[in-house]
Amino acid sequence: MGMYLRQVCLVAHELEPAIAELTRVLGIERCAVDQSVAKFGLENTLMPVGSNFLEVVAPIQENTAAGRFLQKQNGDGGYILVCQVDSAAHQQQCRESAAAQNIRVAFESSDGSYHLMQLHPRDLNNAMWEIDWDDRNEIDGMWEPAGGVKWQQQVRDDVTVSMTGVELQADDPELTAKQWGEIAGIRPETVAGGYRLQLENGELRFVEELDGRGHGLAGVDLTVRQKSKIMDAAPSIDSIRGDCIELCGARFYLNDAV
Fold first, then answer.
1. What distance in Å separates the CA atoms of residue 209 and residue 168, rounded to the nearest whole number?
2. pTM exceeding 0.90
3. What percent of the chain has a predicted confidence (pLDDT) above 90?
4. Domain span holding position 16
């Protein structure tokens, strides 16, 4: 049973400046607005990165979960990790494995063939983890949050090619990797600086806190064609790792396309 990286959601105080910066620096395009987030007091925009997506949400009402998260994290940053599994049975396995660890489902819904499940970030002691299943089972095609398949018309790969990983800061990276791995049905591996879960199209990497902002979704791995162009356009470059930039409060690690 396979699990795929599909979407990374960032949260910002203001939507438009964040989207404008991400599209300008990374050379990607807007593709969709998901109206369903309005019930949570949010607005959003999605941008395709290869066959995956970057999303930014921003509060448009007082006293939203996203607004409280912004206050807690002291600024914009990583919010929700979205994975896609390849069967209803796998999603159910994830649900049962989470329940066995006393991890609650924070929200779930079904809309036609699309079935969404979000695990509670407080129980995970990390980012919210959304594990979705679509009856059509198109890993690089149909994606309901992006409006179906129209997003494919907005894909650009002349600057940024693909999204291949996510970095999660954790109080105890080893324990967190084991916990998430048990839910996903994937055995954690030791890597330099932490632990990882190898997905079908990328990885989830668990590391110690690097930026003083606590646990959560902190970084995204990108494969790019024009690293120098991206770095010249970026507002901030990591002083320790020279191929890492910061956008919307998240680290973006740039890896050259082969």
1. 9
2. yes
3. 90
4. 3-154
